[in-house]
Amino acid sequence: MNSLTEPAEPEPDTAGRETDAVGHEPDAVARPPLVRELLLVVGLFLVYKSGRQLANGHTGEAFDNAHRVWDLERAVHLPGEAAVQHALLHSDTFVHLANTYYATVHFPATVAFLVWLHLRRPRHYIWTRRVLAALTAAALALHLTFPLAPPRMLDAAHLVDTGQVYGPSVYGATPQTDSMANQFAAMPSLHFGWALMVAVGLIAATRSRWRWLWLLHPLLTLLVVIGTANHYWLDAIVATALLGIALAVIRLPAPAPAPGHSVGRHPLPAQRAAAPRTVTAESMGAATPAPWAPAYPRGGSLSASEVLARIPVSVTRGSASAVDAPPAAGPAGTVLAATGAHR
């Protein structure tokens, strides 16, 4: 068949690219605008802080609930909070460090974690922000419906208020008149809940074999909130349960579709170049004789256009050459070839 061939444009090489479980590049999600996210996070935090203040003034109910929680822990044989605090009180330095950790690490660590996710893992950032918002909203609902005095205020616990005795403290000396914080919002412990989500988020967003060490952050936070007598064991247990529910309901967003990617975390093979497109004489506008027409008009030689129409030409990057052109013989013994004319 008389043809004119052109090589198709080669496909982009995707060899070595890595895809996730659904066949997309990791975190292929548009990064949310930073200013909008800052306003959103700050707004949610202010709503939470304002909501906590609504639980103030329920002193009697808060202490009644504290006795119930204390009795329940003893009934189910949870370890006493005093065991952790007694170990802490052996060193004034440790007590001061624990109070400092409680006062200064909780919020800045969570903010730094969110900023890093926003810059490096936008997909995980969106997921984490939703989970933290759900956890905080559930905690606020519990603070309003179940005011709870912390164990440092409970006489039956015989625990020391380490913040007031050793410092530093983030709470006022009189809980009933503390306008900066609601001290009757012990359950659940957001110190522990947020720390646990920071660890879960970093483990999910990174691939280092050392990433499981992030669990030391919530573990240390748990020992601090119990040792300083700011929370009960049940406060941490309830926070863990609420976080588990939030993680079960709110899933990590799927990456943006990326055409040409394979499924699974495997490097993609290089794409083969497409088959050359074939262009016939008809598509070039050249006259093509009908199948029943003679190879040449009787009584004469072929015209120049007829000869050219019968020569297959390979076009590569703008050049043309005759390829395996069969000789065409005229009636007078003339033999025409792509490279010249011979008699």
Automatic annotation (TrEMBL):
Its main location: membrane. Keywords: Membrane, Transmembrane, Transmembrane helix. It is a multi-pass membrane protein. It is found in: Membrane. InterPro entries: Aur1/Ipt1, IPC_Synthase-Related. Residues 68-248 form the Inositolphosphotransferase Aur1/Ipt1 domain. CDD domains: PAP2_Aur1_like. The chain crosses the membrane at residues 101-119, 131-149, 184-205, 212-230. The keyword Cytoplasm does not apply. Pfam families: PAP2_3. The keyword Transmembrane helix applies. Residues 14-27 have a biased composition (Basic and acidic residues). Residues 1-27, 260-281, 320-343 are annotated as: Disordered. GO terms for cellular component: membrane. This is Inositol phosphorylceramide synthase. It comes from Streptomyces antnestii.
